[in-house]
Design brief:
The complex is a heterodimer. By secondary structure, chain A is mostly helical. Chain A has one domain: MetI-like (MetI-like fold). Helix content of chain A is 63%, strand content 0%. Chain A contains 14 helices and no strands. Chain A is flat. The termini of chain A are far apart. Chain B is an all-alpha fold. In chain B, helix 7 (148-165) crosses helix 8 and helix 7 packs parallel to helix 12 (263-269). The N and C termini of chain B lie close together (11 Å). Classes of the chains: A mainly alpha, B mainly alpha. The interface between A and B is large, with 63 and 77 residues.
């Protein structure tokens, strides 16, 4: 290329209309992609409505005039003492076995479900990220010891532990939160550890070290910001898992004890009435399903927005995205497989027991 | 030769893991539940202090924990799991009664979910981004989101109750052993199988689809195609075979875990299997049963893991067993 050509090019560039080219941060790009994803936006709306529903539970109780724990044997039960159906005597979703308003119980149940889901995810994420960073960054003996803890936590049959705890102490909210958090952090830890292992070899970490940055600063200010994307995706996907755990524990009678309503214990009671009162099962089940599905769809959408290259589970509106090449080992995180299989199975390491659920 | 050495090493570590599990459960249940509570459970609420003391002595609950542990371990090595505090049945008898129920649920469920999951997964992968693929992925997400007991309860309401109200009584809840004939057995098993399949097939669809898409991008698939092999042969002989490794490993984990007790499904459908037994035994303080069943569950998981790892070499010729 001759000098004159370059000059010509330079001239034409400066002639171009001065459009302000703004740099967009990674998060701005992610947000823009997420906003154009109808499924993700729909999930966000559903989740916000569900949170409002939970927050407004006392208002709903006030509006219907049916406090959460008050039974209405006269209006809320039919002649043979069975629950009344939706719409009868001002019970919009019908009543339960002792004539309490099902709508109000489900609303209060939403508080417990969402509270447990969000709090346990927050606890598990904080613990998982911290331990994963420490294990990956320091390596060596620290890593080896922590890795055994990850394995043990992933291997323990969690329902058995929950049952054991519930048989010693009375089942309560604190135990539920403790058990679920305890069995959730290890999965996050393992993935954060793996990412930290590769990130800590990057040049900018070396640069930070040579500037005299301490370990804490490097871990939390240099490495962590680069992991926020995958951690956000994992956390969003853990919320529905935690909601399901809570519901399952309560269903088995080792979660939230009556009379406090939780979707799980409502469904456990409803089991005895499937012959006569379909609404008693169907409505709480629907709320539970809609909530977990919305969080799963949102998590999937966020993953797609953060890294459009990775495989997207919900292959919604966008056509013509690249066919997936080799998933493993391209820069993109293969979260799907990481979450599902836990890790590449190593033939020389025994991986004894997964948490038994079924 | 390599294989034999591999198996021997894995069996030894497997036994070590089982010992750890046995020890862990023993101390968890014997130290977590106070002796007084156990004795009261055994003797009944109205028992006098004298009876309580007698019961405590009879079951050796007054001995030091370490001595109890050694006795327990000694019996365990001889294959004696002890006997239930509550029913006096030996734990082995209980396992004999309950294992067929759990095994029925698991075996049928596995077949159903594998067939459904793999068929949908393979079709989705070969028609990536088609309408079928998209519908399947939505279904998968719904399946992944659904808690097991919700699926079970909805099936009971919409299938079991509806059919029975219309005079079709083939499908029943509870358990009918095979000795009563295949029909009744099938009638009690179909809904539990479908429940397991709905929840689990999703996972397998997702895994097999992802894994097959990965494999189809490999160089040796291009080689196979350029040799002029038919697409069918390329797909089933070359791609699917090695794409099955993650599926097999997940299958091993699931089957191993479920054989120890399909807790939720057994609870929903009133099936008296191993999971049902555990859920009933723990609050009752029946430690020998709980410990026995937990060790059994762990043994299934350990065995499944060994089989899975050994089968890798058979499925994917590139894997070397070390």
């Amino acid at each position: 290329m001759s000098v004159t050509e370059l000059q010509f090019q330079a001239a034409s560039v400066s002639d171009a209309p001065a459009v302000a080219v703004q740099g967009r941060s990674q998060w701005q790009l992610t947000w823009r992609r997420l906003r154009s994803d109808k499924v993700a936006v729909g999930s966000i709306i559903v989740i916000i409505l569900m949170i409002l529903f939970a927050i407004c539970a006392p208002l709903i109780a006030h509006a219907t005039g049916h406090p959460v724990d008050t039974a209405y044997p006269d209006t809320g039960e039919d002649a043979s003492g069975l629950p009344v159906g939706p719409g009868v005597h001002g019970f919009f979703l019908g009543t339960d076995q002792i004539g309490r308003d099902l709508l109000v119980r489900i609303a209060y149940g939403a508080r417990i479900s969402l509270f447990v889901g969000l709090l346990t995810t927050a606890l598990a994420t904080i613990a998982g990220v911290t331990l994963g960073l420490v294990a990956g960054y320091f390596g060596g003996i620290v890593d080896a010891i922590l890795a055994r803890f990850f394995d043990a936590a992933l291997a323990f049959p969690f329902i058995i532990l929950a049952l054991a705890l519930a048989s010693v102490f009375h089942p309560n909210l604190a135990i539920v939160i403790g058990v679920i958090s305890f069995f959730s952090w290890a999965g996050i830890s393992r993935i954060v550890r793996g990412q930290t292992l590769s990130l800590k070899e990057k040049e900018y970490i070396e640069a930070a070290k040579s500037l005299g940055a301490g370990s804490g600063r490097i871990m939390f200010l240099e490495i962590l910001p680069n992991l926020l994307g995958p951690v956000l995706v994992l956390a969003t996907l853990y919320i529905p898992t935690a909601v399901t755990f809570e519901a399952t524990l309560s269903f088995l009678g080792i979660g939230i004890p009556e009379p406090a309503p939780s979707w799980g214990n409502i469904l456990a009671e409803a089991q005895n009435f499937y012959n006569t009162s379909w609404w008693y099962v169907v409505f709480p089940a629907l709320f539970l399903l809609v909530t977990t599905l919305a969080f799963n769809l949102l998590g999937d959408g966020i993953r797609d927005a953060i890294d459009p290259r990775t495989e997207r589970l919900f292959a919604g509106s966008k056509n013509g995205r690249r066919k997936r090449g080799k998933g493993k080992g391209t820069g993109g995180l293969n979260l799907d497989q990481a979450i599902m299989v836990g890790e590449e199975r190593d033939l020389t390491v025994d991986n004894p027991m997964p948490a038994g659920e079924g | 030769m390599n294989m034999v050495r591999f198996l021997i090493r894995r069996i030894i570590t497997g036994i070590l893991v089982l010992w750890l599990v046995a020890t862990g459960t023993f101390f968890l249940f014997f130290t977590a539940v106070p002796v007084g509570v156990v004795a009261r459970n055994l003797a009944g609420r109205a028992a006098t202090p004298g009876v309580l003391a007698q019961v405590t002595r009879y079951y050796g609950l007054d001995r030091p924990v370490l001595a109890q542990y050694l006795t327990f371990l000694h019996k365990l090595i001889k294959g004696n799991f002890g006997q239930s505090f509550l029913t006096q049945q030996t734990v082995t008898t209980i396992i004999h009664q309950d294992l067929p129920v759990t095994a029925s649920v698991v075996v049928g469920g596995v077949l159903l979910w594998l067939i459904a999951g793999l068929a949908v997964g393979i079709l989705s992968a070969t028609r990536a981004r088609s309408l079928f693929d998209r519908v399947a992925t939505v279904g998968v997400l719904a399946g992944v989101s659904a808690p097991t007991f919700v699926v079970g309860e909805l099936l009971i309401i919409f299938v079991f109750v509806q059919l029975n109200q219309h005079g079709i009584s083939f499908i029943q809840t509870g358990y009918a052993p095979l000795s009563q004939g295949v029909g009744p057995w099938l009638g009690t098993m179909i809904l539990p199988w479908i429940t397991l399949a709905i929840v689990q097939a999703a996972v397998y669809t997702r895994l097999s689809r992802g894994s097959l898409l990965d494999t189809l991008g490999e160089d040796y698939i291009r080689t196979a195609r350029s040799k002029g092999l038919t697409e069918r042969r390329v797909l089933y002989r070359h791609a699917v075979r090695s794409a099955m490794t993650p599926v097999v490993s997940q299958l091993g984990i699931d089957v191993g875990a479920l054989l120890g007790g399909v807790l939720v499904v057994e609870q929903v459908f009133g099936l008296h299997g191993l999971g049902y037994q555990v859920v009933a035994s723990i609050p009752a303080g029946d430690q020998p049963v709980v410990i026995g069943l937990v060790i059994l569950a762990a043994a299934f998981v350990v065995a499944a893991n060994i089989i899975v790892d050994a089968s890798y070499a058979l499925l994917d010729p590139r894997v070397r067993i070390s």
